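Practice problem: predict the structure.
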Amino acid sequence: MIERSQAEDVHTYVEEALAKHVGSLALKLHTGRSRNDQVATDLRVHLRNAEDRIEVELNGLLCTIAQLADQHLAVVLPGYTHLQRAQPVLFAHYLIAFGEMILRDRERLRQARARTNICPLGSGAVSGTAYDIDREALARDLEFDAVSDNSMDAVSDRDFVLDFLFFASTLLMHLSRLAEDLILFSSTEFGFIQMDDSVASGSSLMPQKKNPDALELIRGKAGRVYGHLLSLLTTLKGLPMTYNKDMQEDKEGLFDSVRTAESCVGMTRRVLETMRIRPERMREASETGYLNATELADYLAAKGMPFRKAHRLVGKLVLRALELELPLEKLSLAQYRSFSPLFANDVYNCLRLERVVARRKARGGTAPATVRRALKQFLKKIGEPER
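Answer:
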């Protein structure tokens, strides 16, 4: 086995192992080749296979997001800015937002794979090879899309590794953001979701607690992948042409990032598939906190009041409602008209939660009909049939 071999490196080991089967013919294996172009080729083959596996995982996650969105098209969730309740949105709209992020990640992965799948074999150590080989045929046999055009660049290029590490860093950033939201949403203070026992743990001291371990690990591993990207950038920045032993440092970080990306995508999918949604808690939160205040400003603007003036007036009105400890829809018409004669009985209809959500009809908005269309488009993007 290679672990017990006394060979100088893996290439020498392959020669020695082959010699046991074909004899001295194996000594011709290295003809016209250098470890420099061989290791570059090996790494590209290894990485493109990993990229293919990760794309399969991403497609699975995208399908899970689409399925969850389809199952919860009527559920309303508070939308947040600055972690403060802002405006109500459909839970499906929220899910598709993360789906769009993952779609961009998949596109980055595909672009990285295209740059990975260039064949450097035949470049030799630095100057190319003196043997009359058909590099294009060699590339086809090894299932590469094209051959490298410059021997010096071919053996010193690790941009394709950086491309993957940047993809993985961005992906983990997106998964970390989703994990952070779900950690908050599963807390007692929010109570929007309940984590499955298979992705959570109990406290070693407090019997009532359920800790979102899987999500916390995903959130934590983002920084680990960031570190691999920065480490390789730092390693490469001062290297002279062409191959230098420093470039061995590309392997550990890359291999770990591949494992981390694969496991985190799979675990995120597991979390989404097993969590329990609590629509009643989401609705309750959407109906408190004056999330319909913007609707009041729009109401006044539609009746001719400049929006900036309407914005200030509604701010004062909300302060009055807070003093009275009443939601906006419980204020009397007389109380409304004390702020502006533009208010009429139709103001109560505009404050209804369903109407607040339904009015956001423009493309990209959270209105039910708009979200249904967005889900159909999302399914097309991920290559799934419409539901």
